[in-house]
Amino acid sequence: MKLFIAGVILGVLGFAAGIWFYFSTGMVPVAVSDTDMPFEALLARKALHARIVKQGDKPSPVPADEKNLLAGATVYVQNCAVCHGLPGQPKTTIAEGLYPKPPQLFKGHGVTDDPASETYWKAANGIRLTGMPGFKSTLSETQLWQVSQLLANADKITEPVKKALAPPAPAPAASGPAH
Predict the structure, then answer these.
(1) Residue 76 and residue 166: Cα distance in Å, rounded?
(2) N or C, which terminus of the chain has less Cβ within 10 Å?
């Protein structure tokens, strides 16, 4: 029995030493262009999902009406579009350079299948080690719910809301000096 316990202790210490060696010798992929660490995406998704479930699903105090979706579009364009994109537009250079890649919320799957409360939690709190900031200190509760409702209903938005999500018009080119 003593040998078994000693073996377990040595195994645990060996495992811990291996992890320490992996991190302390620069073998961990830390550059944006590096491949994922083993199980990184799986563990991150599991932890995020568990935290959101723990918080619970709370109903939105903001209805998904035209007024709130338009306000949510303004918030989205000003705070989210640089990373998460606009409808019908290519990824920005910032989005291309982030790791992990931010989801393009108006392309493909998006977040329309997520309850607004989940999107609200992510926008309010941010997501560690992803570049996703938390906005609860810079946006109001109403603004956070408006953008969350916009994204939860992104597959049902009206033409005025789509227009509000259009990219800003490019600034006119400055004319050169007159000769």
Answers:
(1) 11
(2) C
pLDDT tens digit string along 59-106? 999 999 999 999 999 999 999 999 999 999 999 999 999 988 999 998
DSSP 3-state percent helix, strand, coil across the chain (nearest 5): 50, 0, 45
CA pair distance 57, 119, nearest whole angstrom: 11
Note the pTM of the prediction, 2 decimals: 0.77
Among 152, 142, 133, smallest CA distance to 79 is for 133
Read off the amino acid at residue 46: K
Q: What does DSSP assign to residue 89?
A: -
Q: Sort residue 68 into left (φ over 0), alpha (ψ -120 to 50) or beta.
A: alpha
Nearest to 120 by CA among 62, 66, 74, 42: 62
Both tokens assigned to 159: 């033409």
Q: Where are the domains of the chain?
A: 61-164
What's the pLDDT tens digit per position in 28-60? 877 767 787 778 778 888 888 898 888 888 899
